[in-house]
Write a structure and sequence with these properties.
Elements (H helix, E strand, L loop, with lengths): L8 E2 L2 E3 L2 E3 L2 E2 L5 E9 L2 E12 L2 E12 L6 H11 L10 E5 L2 E5 L3 E7 L2 E7 L6 H9 L1 E3 L23
Antiparallel strand pairs: 1-4, 2-3, 3-12, 5-6, 6-7, 7-11, 8-9, 9-10, 10-11
Length: 166
């Protein structure tokens, strides 16, 4: 026993073809799903929130976005700059890698292009979820294989674990 405890997490379920394998365990437990569209991009959104004295507080949001204009990371960044009403020149973004895809993040969100036309955006309340938990949650969002409904991590299993080819 190391004396260091791992942060509690829980499964976030599947949202529009992506398995949210973990969310921070101390975020709100009220979960809602929404579908919307903005500027020709369709959103499937899952929100985790908590009840407060003033109403509700959103702790975590995951958006799966689908649209032809999401062609590469630069196009995604430009779209999210408009959507979140940010000033690109005043938005300090840091590179990160999600599987084989390049992504961008700041203290409250991470986003990446899963494939042309499909992107994921994970947003947190930085007062409730720290940067490390944000990145761990973002990295835990993986595509679900359409072929058999299983979760694809983007990493090939060892040859001994793969089924034989037909």
């Amino acid at each position: 026993m190391t004396g260091v405890s791992e942060p509690m997490t829980r499964d976030g379920g599947v949202l529009d073809g992506f398995h949210i394998r973990q969310v921070p365990g101390d975020i709100g437990t009220e979960v809602s799903d929404f579908a919307s569209e903005w500027d020709d991009v369709r959103f499937a959104t899952r929100v985790w929130e908590r009840q407060t004295d003033d109403g509700h507080q959103v702790d975590l949001r995951v958006h799966v976005m689908r649209g032809e204009r999401l062609t590469d990371l630069a196009a995604l960044r430009d779209f999210l700059t408009e959507y979140h009403e940010r000033d690109l020149g005043d938005w300090p973004l840091t590179d990160f890698t999600h599987g084989g895809s390049a992504g961008l993040r700041d203290d409250s969100q991470a986003f990446w292009l899963a494939e042309p036309g499909v992107a994921v955006n994970v947003l947190v309340d930085p007062g409730q979820v720290d940067r490390g938990q944000l990145l761990a949650t973002a990295l835990a969002v993986v595509a679900v294989s359409e072929r058999n409904g299983s979760v694809s991590s983007g990493v090939e299993p060892p040859a001994a674990a793969r089924p034989p080819a037909d």
